[in-house]
Amino acid sequence: MICLGIEGTAHTIGIGIVDQDCKVLANMSRMIDGSKGGIHPREAANHHAENVVPLMHEAVTKAGISYDEIGLVSFSQGPGLGPCLRTAATAARGLALALEVDLVGVNHCVAHLEIGRKVTGCSDPTLMYASGGNTQVIAYSGGRYRVFGETMDVGIGNMIDKFGRSVGLPFPAGPHLERLAKGSKELIDLPYSVKGMDVAFSGILTAAQQLHAKGAKLEDLCYSIQETCFAMLVEVTERAMAHVEKDEVLLGGGVVQNKRLQEMVRIMAEERGAKMFVPPGSLCVDNGAMIAWTGIVMHGAGITTRIEDSVVNQRFRTDEVDLPWMMGKV
Ligand code: ATP
Ligand code: FE2
């Protein structure tokens, strides 16, 4: 079985082609230019509409297959921006109908977890999902993936990108922040905001911007943002792991490519006798392969999405998804 998966929750349109063993035959994406600030949902959807078909042809060529070898089509059904989701869903419906194959609607957050479980070999992890728009701690409990903690305002990546934009760093700012942070060991006090297993980042952004305006060194600010935000993430992840008594921590989302964050998570894991798992970067960021793979997993468990049920869900919660493939496994 080969599945073609379409990701289109936010700024990235991605096509992944994956086989039954999770061999990634193609994983290609195009992203809108986010350097001017924020994502305009309509403009992003137009970008996806222009790119989805050419990208699909490129991915099929790259995979070295023909369209009639595709046995399943999956797409990101939510959560995300309505116009972007609808564009990806429309393409997926059209392809599934044309090829006369099944369609599967996938929860984007569950897809981060499933691809991570598969490629790293962990079985029942706590996921630290830190991306542009999302920051959540998720684990399997009582038959569902549950969100134990999350950001109460912006995603950590969005905060980093906003800070970067205001101090003149290129977009996305994450890798530049990481590079600049290496040039400092000077920890500036920033508002550390953890409530239970939830976190908040907007106070840190405001404080860092004000300090920059007053002449604080950019390297020191980058270092301090990393140390503060990552310590918050590690604290809530550890709390969730203790609560659900799990000894695997899986990383997902674009921000977890940061080596300092990985180092901090690894130390936390080692200290509690747990193990950290990190998928390759191309499978951490938003990508079509994770949607394709989760389509295969769901379809293997007997799930298909009828066209009339394939309407997108902007607020598709992680804990709404039934996980028949997990039954009896963990
Ligand atoms: P979502 O998954 O919520 O839809 P997204 O598509 O914006 O959000 P990703 O593609 O997973 O997110 O990740 C992009 C984010 O990762 C950007 O905010 C970027 O700045 C951040 N990022 C990338 N590399 C690094 C790094 N080395 N350090 C910190 N942040 C990073
Ligand atoms: Fe994502």
Structure summary:
With 330 residues, the protein is α/β, with parallel strands linked by helices.
Task: Write structural notes for this entry.
43% of the residues lie in helices and 20% in strands. With 330 residues, the protein is of the alpha/beta class. It has 2 domains: 2-113 and 283-326, ATPase, nucleotide binding domain (Nucleotidyltransferase, domain 5, 2-Layer Sandwich); 124-281, ATPase, nucleotide binding domain (Nucleotidyltransferase, domain 5), CATH 3.30.420. It has a 5-stranded mixed sheet with strand order 3-2-1-4-5, with helices on both faces. A 5-stranded mixed sheet has the order 8-7-6-11-12, sandwiched between helices. Strands 9-10 form a two-stranded antiparallel ribbon. The chain is globular and about 60 Å long. The two termini are 25 Å apart. 50% of the residues are buried. Bound molecules: adenosine-5'-triphosphate (ATP) and fe (ii) ion. Residues 9-12, 131-134, 155, 157, 160-161, 172-175, 177-178, 253-255, 257-258, 285-286 line the site of adenosine-5'-triphosphate.
User: How much helical structure, as a percent, in the residues?
Assistant: 40-55%
What's the CATH topology name of the largest domain? Answer: Nucleotidyltransferase, domain 5
CATH architecture of the largest domain: 2-Layer Sandwich
CA-atom Rg in angstroms: 20 Å
Bound molecules: adenosine-5'-triphosphate, fe (ii) ion
Count of discrete domains: 2
* Strands in their spatial order, largest beta sheet: 3-2-1-4-5
**Number of E strands:** 12
Instruction: Give the biggest beta sheet.
Output: 5 strands, mixed
Structural class: alpha/beta
Provide the succession of SSEs.
EEEHEHEHEEEHHEEHHEHEHH
Termini separation (Å)?
25 Å
**Given this structure, which CATH class of the largest domain is correct?**
Alpha Beta
